[in-house]
Amino acid sequence: MPEQDPQRRRHNFEEVPYGYTEELALLEARRCLKCKKPGCVQGCPVNIDIPGFIKLIEEGKFIEAAWKLKEQNTLPAVTGRVCPQEVQCESKCILGKKGEPCAIGRLERFAADYAIKKGAINVPRLPPATGKKIAIIGSGPSGLTVAGDLAKLGHSVTIFEAFHVTGGVLMYGIPEFRLPKHIVQFEINYLRKLGVEILTDYVVGKAKTVDELLCGGYDAAFVGTGAGLPIFLGIPGENLIGCYSANEYLTRNNLMKAYLFPEFATAPIRSKCVVTVGGGNVAMDSARTAQRLGARSIIVYRRSRDEMPARAEEIHHAEQEGVELMLLTNPLRVIGDKNGRVVGLECIKMKLGEPDASGRRKPVPLPGSEFVVECDTVVPSLGNRSNPLIPMTTPDIKTSRWGTLICDPDTLETSKKGVFAGGDIVTGAATVISAMGQGKIAARSIHEYVTTGKVSKPVAKTETAENDKK
Amino acid sequence: MSEITFTIDGVEVRTEKGDTVLEAAQKAGIRIPTLCAHPALEPYGACRLCIVEIEGLRGFPPSCTTPAAAGMVVKTKTPQIVDLRREVLKLLLSGHTSPCLVCLHRVQCEKYRPVSSKAGKTTRCFTCSNRDQCSLRELAVEYNIQDLDLPIIYRNLPLERTDPFMDRDYNVCVLCGRCARICKKIHGSAVISFINRGKNARIGTAFGRDHTEADCKFCGACIDICPTGSLTDRFAKWYGKPDEAPETNCLICPIGCRMRVKLKDGNHIASTMTDFTREARLCAIGRFVVPQLLNGPRRLKTHKIRIADGLINASRPDAVRGAAERLAKKAGDSFALVTHSQTVAEEIYLLKKFTNEVMKSKNFFIAGTDGEKVHLPAGIKTLYMTGDLVDGLAGLETIIIADMLPSAAQQSADVVLAAAGLTEISGSFTNAAGKIEELDAVARPAADIVPDWRLVCEIAGQMDAPGFTFATTRQIKAEMTQKGEAFTPGVMPDPSPLNDTRFLPRWYRGHLMSDIVVSLRALNPPEESAVQETTETTALSPFKVLEKIEVVANTHETTIYAPAIAEKCQPGQFIIAMVNEKSERIPYTIADFDRANGTITLVTLEAGRSSRDLALTARGDSLAHVAGPLGMPVEVKKYGTVVCAGGCYGVGAILPIARAMKEAGNRVICIEEASSHYLLYWQDKLSAVCDELLIVTKDGSAGMKGGIQEVLAMLVARGEKIDQAYVIGCTFMMMLVSNLAKELSIPTQVALNPIMLDGTGMCGACRVSLEGETKFACVDGPFFDGHKINWEELMSRNTSYQGVEIEALPQKGVKLAHTCRCEKNRH
Ligand SMILES: Cc1cc2nc3c(=O)[nH]c(=O)nc-3n(C[C@H](O)[C@H](O)[C@H](O)COP(=O)(O)OP(=O)(O)OC[C@H]3O[C@@H](n4cnc5c(N)ncnc54)[C@H](O)[C@@H]3O)c2cc1C
Ligand code: SF4
Ligand code: SF4
Ligand code: SF4
Ligand code: SF4
Ligand code: FES
Q1: What residues make up the domain containing A67?
Q2: How confident is the model over B183-214, as pLDDT tens digits?
Q3: Which of B763, B800, B807 to mutate to test the interface with A (most CBs of A within 10 A)?
Q4: Residue A444 lies in a domain
Q5: Residue A149 backbone dihedrals phi, psi, to 5 degrees
Q6: What are the chain B neighbours of A387 within 8 Å (beta carbons)?
Q7: What is the pTM assigned to this prediction?
Q8: What is the CATH architecture assignment of B545-628?
Q9: Level-2 CATH architecture, domain B303-483
């Protein structure tokens, strides 16, 4: 797929891949075999009718293709960009056995973008109102999915979002150059058209609690509050000025638009050299943002490249843009000057030892190999723990040792009657599409719960899809 | 001139006849303190600080108005004079915003808070931009003034900030009259003068007009001569004391005024006259606009090269190489270079030489200063221009732009070079009077930014062209002299901008200056504006402002309709507000709430851009976003005796806590701290919810003298057993109180106010350390055990964005904050 030149893009916040042209999309769509028993659909956490939408593209019916996507997927323009297709749908594509799998993600993005560009929104005719009210807490991908599915079934849905904008990580975490914010907002506006009510600046648990929502007229609640609690390194010097969680570093830029300071009032972090600690997608996003803000950008990661949890494509993009990788390196302490500002990060070299519980080889420090990376900013990007607000304010909801909500894996009902959950708050920090997949399951359960008063386990996975299709 | 001899403090001094005693003393190096006197002004004798004793004369005449006479015996430092001077000074300070000067904790405060708070109104030294260069403060220290006998009179005049460039806060004025006198001296008739008499005397314009209407020339002389923080330069004020102040000339118009350049870290932040005379005056452009062209937010700071369809940032060597490559095979008359005249002769010479010799073209143009763009002759394919100087770029194949400011033309450029200019460059300048001035580069741009002539030398170097190996403008000048180049003067502007702001220069390098420095529009409304000003739209929202008053100076009480928050909020919680869609998310403690009417009330200080936005809202406006209630409420139960203490905004914040504690059956003692009596508010509300209200002021003007810690000590001394204390206010105050409370073993909860971003526990910006453990203030707090907090770290973290914050402050004049309770008069 055509991409913005790395030399150019390392200085701007425009999207990196340009997306397919119509010609390229037609060519790619033609490669799909339109299998009778498509593997790709099994690989998709929301069971999109992949051959179906690709066929529509092949026929030049781009808008219809987008509508087809929307049947199963509330946010196709988003997932087309941020899904790890290489381990999902595309990994199951029959073409992949011999050569390149069909580029499902790119086609998905193409169709969704096409419809957005043309403003072609297909608001399905809604069934008669059921009179059931459902509260969705959190407007990340899981909450948005539940909202969309339930609204299409005629329920009255309200989303409560703590932030001043909707979208969760899609808005505050994932940077503009990977996921343009207007795309997210376009998809969310679609929900508004479905009649979904959205209340921003509403912190459930602090304003009304879950219990109060349920007593106050809501028939069921969905908790999709995500994994928003940043993990720090726990090393000395972490509270010096110049050390920021990835969440803060990214939020200042994405949500608060500090890169447009002083037009936007949020203060930017102006650095000469940023060291990002970690090897996941979040670390890549921080490091690439640092590069774009004009700093030298270094990633420190304690294992080797092969163990990096980030998508290969992201690591590749980061390196192309000039991000430096310091592998097998572990930070020991953040060093500050007399004004309490970061001037360096002391690290130690590591080597790989025996595999640990996760199956990855455990890094062990090489004594005597300590050294200092001079830098003025350190961004620990070690991921996030579950957002504790709802568990803290909902006494009878059960949580795991890690703070995630304990749910029935098939129905996603929590230990509290009428309360369902999904996304990172259940799985721990995961992916957009898994959050959406859970959203679909939860929506099905909620629908059953509010219409029949009970929740049954789905018979088979495909059944879920059937149910939602109508 | 004849000399006379007389003695001062036993030393024989000689001076010219006609000198005053003060002048004679100053010449002899004997210091006599002064305030209203200024070398540039006629003796005035108003402040009476310069009193002396003269043998044979009764009383204590002011030395500034007493002519020296032969044989006089003058004493300047007798104990009696020193005493008297102290009295004079005390009297003066009691009409001034001086509580910080007599505060017991001043030295500590200055150590922990070296930078003033960027307030709107100045209420004391800590919110005064003059703090690190104030002669009044020096005098107070020199004369060891620790107490004032009379309470300070605060006039509570409105802050005047509707005019471009200047803020005026006459609450800080000491009536020295310097400003009015210098204005009259320079302009013949004074824009500002004493109005009213006696105790209502103040400085102002006739009929209370703003300066723009009162024909102020915006020469800035009054600001520069004012000894206090009363008159200030809005752009420069928070940068503090300049590091250096070298001189150079203004290059904007051919008058070429000499000016003194105030530098902070090498950046030109203000220009002032070299002398307080009519001849030395500057126009508003030289005084106020030049610094903002150079160091305002729109200054070009990066070089750019085109790759495919976009421009990317590049280092100077890369950009120069890029330019050289693009110019490589373009020699001939299809090349044109367009420059401007607002620069030194060497630069123009060199650009012309480059055009003729390297590019072998005769197409060299100098755009005028009238904004008229150059129309290129037919056949031009390659253009190099040093500004926004050409009309019609379509059809050009290669465009290279060296500039200091952004323009639309740069969107189509192949290379954009960020250049130095104005006070950042050296060279010769022939002013309209024909005088050749040798200018030094005084301001220092960022490392990668150099003058246009140097850029062209580097490009020529890359192209292997000979004859461009100059290291200084002097070397260029030597070549010019050798070749007999003439240094032609520009044309004297008529009418002169110095006399009338209607004729101020409008253009610089082809940019309409009022597009770059928006406040300039108040003086010369643009004929055609290239840039659309972004109108800040406040999204329609339910967070409507129902009441808005400035409860005391710089402290705003805002009542907002927010039923979901009002319904649930508990004492000690806060909200996060965004005034408009571009605001920061800023936490404010909920000072009061009314569940029945669905409202919450905030008490906020103006201390920067976002709090200013809030301070400037008026009844009927809506805030874009308010989220909450956030944080953990305080634990309300029966403790026994509970102290609720607050300072500045914290006074508001302790009200609901005191009320709840009282309702829970505690004996509640409230302490309200303020710098001075005129900053006290809500005493009535507090009295109604506590058993005892104690007032404490830093200057002793109401209640006890000192701070909350002194009151705590007093309470303990009188045998009070305090079971729990809640303290809310600035970090410095909470630290002082906590330190003492720890010694006295009083359990103390303080409400921390670190920098926050989301306020929901998502970012960690708000982390604080308690005995080595990290907590997030927004979710674990805001209340923490004051004994355990790592205060040094907290104070240090709160300075994270200090430098950047200054840049965020809006430079445009603003409508006055509405302070009365009537319906806002809109449009
Ligand atoms: C920087 C970054 C990059 C990522 N990149 C990728 C990627 O490329 N591909 C991918 O698949 N995944 C990626 N992820 C992971 C992915 O974004 C998450 O797994 C996904 O967003 C989880 O969705 P969610 O609906 O569970 O919660 P979230 O998106 O976290 O949304 C939760 C929302 O709930 C709100 N909320 C929380 N508490 C309350 C409350 N009490 N009341 C009201 N609202 C509340 C929050 O404000 C938030 O808006 C990335 C994550 C990050 C941080
Ligand atoms: S002018 Fe400002 S700094 Fe000087 S004494 Fe007055 S308040 Fe303090
Ligand atoms: S800026 Fe100049 S003209 Fe205006 S009031 Fe001050 S001294 Fe007078
Ligand atoms: S404004 Fe300044 S210069 Fe003018 S009288 Fe007051 S203190 Fe003196
Ligand atoms: S009149 Fe104004 S623009 Fe002209 S040289 Fe003087 S200060 Fe500069
Ligand atoms: S403000 Fe972000 S975690 Fe507290």
Answers
A1: 6-118
A2: 999 999 899 999 988 888 899 998 888 999 89
A3: B763
A4: yes
A5: -65, -45
A6: 760-762
A7: 0.88
A8: Beta Barrel (2.40)
A9: 3-Layer(aba) Sandwich (3.40)
